[in-house]
Amino acid sequence: MSISFQLVQAKPNRVTTIVFSWMLFAVGLGLYFYTSQKRHQDNPEDRIMPTVTQMFHGMSDASTKPAEDDDSTLPENASLRQRFFASMLWKDTLATSRRFIYSILLLIPAVLLGLHMGLFPYVGVFFLRFILFFDKIVALSLLPILFIVFGIDELSKIMLIVIGVTPTIILDTFNLTKGVPSEQVVKAFTLGAGDFDVAYRVVLRQIMPRVLNSIRLNLKAVMLFLFAGEMIASTDGLAYRIALLRRHMGMDVIIPYVLWVALLLFLVDLAMRLVNRKLHPWFQEA
Amino acid sequence: MALIEIQNLSVAYGTPSRPVLTDIDIRIEEGEFVCVLGQTGCGKSTLLKMILGAESPAGGRILIDGVEHKQPDRTRGYVPQKYSLFPDKTVLDNIAFGPEVSEFNMFTRFTPWFVRRRREIRNEAMRYIHRIGLHERDARKYPYQLSGGMQQRVALAQALATHPRILLMDEAFSALDPGTRKDMQRLIRQLWRDTGVTVLFVTHNTQEALYLGSRVIVLAKESSDAGAQVAMDLSVPEPCHEHQIPMLVHHLEHASGSARAPEVPVFATA
Known about the structure:
With 286 residues, chain A is an all-alpha fold. Chain A has helices at 14-42, 52-62, 80-85, 88-105, 107-119, 121-136, 143-150, 154-178, 182-190, 195-217, 219-232, 238-247, 251-279. The longest helix of chain A has 29 residues, at 14-42. Chain B is an alpha/beta fold. Chain B has helices at 44-52, 91-103, 112-131, 148-160, 178-195, 206-212, 245-257; strands at residues 4-13, 18-28, 33-37, 59-64, 67-68, 76-79, 166-170, 198-203, 215-221, 228-235.
């Protein structure tokens, strides 16, 4: 047989790669707009699959007008800038971002704990078993308890994220610390380093790019818990808005909001990747 | 008093415990270049780790200048085969790391003295870079940008920068190609003569041991389930002529094959 079609060894060229990689986007968009148009022909009042114009109107309202439940009033002659900063979209994004940033900051102690657990045996034996247990608790099942204990304000939402994500980060950092070759630690001691020099100037610096990558992978989990908290108990935030608009079947705003969240998350991830590369030029992705 | 005194050292690993080293007694004087030779798995690296203090023995003790050391410290420099450099630091920072951390802790790093002293340390590190045959432009490279031989050169400079009395090298040149290896052997001989540091060099390569050492210790096991013992301990006359090496290699390889010491060459010590 001389006819053979290579599957594993196939080498798609530039054009095919571009065409193939955008194919599903094109199919998805095409199907959506075809169905949407079909539905609007049958029923001009259709709310399930809004047209592009409807979504544009929905979003331009969202980004220039305050939310319906927002009591703040704008002067009649407010500029576009003022309108934007008082708008529903901006305020929701701000509220969600604030919670997101708090959660990311709370991961710093988690990284440090993992480092110390991996490096100092006593810290390791003290925490490891408990955190392995804690890691198995389904964080969302704790949500009612958190609301009872901490109330339904910011604290319980941030605690949810902390409980959901920190065990993973701690254990990941622990494993990365364990993975540093023992030669490195021994070498540092022979050069006169103390315990904390070894921890912060040798081990932490080496694992830092991998830790950042691990946090990047867990961004999805952070957002998941954040959205769960916002949807159930909140008065602002992107997920609160999506949950609220569901009641009015406000798909013209829900769909752009979903895409907006995806874009924001993509940008955060991209920024972290660039910062990681900038800070650790020596890091070889293995 | 000997610089390194190994008394009755035995080491066993695992459960049920399997002996690795049994009843090792070695005295090493200041300024010696000792090569520890043996087959793979005979415990020569374990012996080095014991002297390093990275692991503790099951029995016996090791005295460095009359004192027992429970963990690695500045008295003993270390050059392993792999992972010898800090991947996140440049060549210059790798060499300067030792002097910096041994003089300044996490808090005194934020004082003006540190800034001034660091400049001196960096100049010193630069001198080391020239001494090991690297260029000024290599100073800002990261270890991954260097060849294996260059990395080990830097590792040597890094270990010597803190002026240790003892230098422990674990198969330090074993991953290098023959040409580079020869260069490295010349370099370490040179550095040994210049600094007077006591070197303990672990290798499985007999030629290397004979070329480098002023003394060669062969470790071998009596049987596969026994711990290794000192099978032979000979001082190598200086200079060790190239034409003598084949004969010595034959003798030593015979020795490391079985613990029974064969007829010892003329210049062997008792």
